[in-house]
Amino acid sequence: MENFDTVSLSFCGGTHNHKNCVTTALDEAEQLCISRGVRLTDARKRVLELVWDSHNPIGAYDVLSKLSQESGKTAPPTVYRALDFLLEQGLIHRIESLNAFVGCSHPKEEHSGLFLICKDCGCAAEVHDAVIDKTILNKTDALGFKAEQRVLEVRGLCPDCVA
Ligand SMILES: [Zn+2]
Ligand SMILES: [Zn+2]
Ligand SMILES: [Zn+2]
């Protein structure tokens, strides 16, 4: 597995072209779903796009209200089912402490999500580290524990908010 251990956290401050993030994420999602033979329906795709609206984790309720605003009243199960699908496919991660979702920037590889979450501006930067990944897998395997969700959350201040 490739090691992505250095990730620029500058995106928290919104100084990058976020459209690129969204386009890349949607393209990757489409390709992945095709290669896995699962359907990225319009509703699922739109929910993914809404989650990718920013790098700040978004709650299911907010996704629902955005969707209802643009396409009329939407049934909550539509959103929950879409979010479940996206989670299953590894296209998004769930941030338990915030009860919210954030897009995965490298869904092609199975990995643990390590998130640096800024308590000030709310951004969540995903850090990729194959060593941490392997350590977690080794530990869980050794204990005979079947890991399902592997998301680590580190809370603090992003570089923009520290400054
Ligand atoms: Zn972005
Ligand atoms: Zn991820
Ligand atoms: Zn911040």
UniProtKB/TrEMBL annotation:
Binds 1 zinc ion per subunit. CDD domains: Fur_like. Keywords: Cytoplasm, DNA-binding, Iron, Metal-binding, Repressor, Transcription, Transcription regulation, Zinc. GO terms for molecular function: DNA-binding transcription factor activity; transcription cis-regulatory region binding; zinc ion binding. Its cofactor is Zn(2+). Its main location: cytoplasm. Zn(2+) binds at residues 118, 121, 158, 161. It comes from the Bacteria. GO terms for biological process: negative regulation of DNA-templated transcription; regulation of secondary metabolite biosynthetic process. SUPFAM superfamilies: Winged helix' DNA-binding domain. GO terms for cellular component: cytosol. It is found in: Cytoplasm. Homodimer. Belongs to the Fur family. This is Ferric uptake regulation protein. It comes from Kiloniella spongiae.
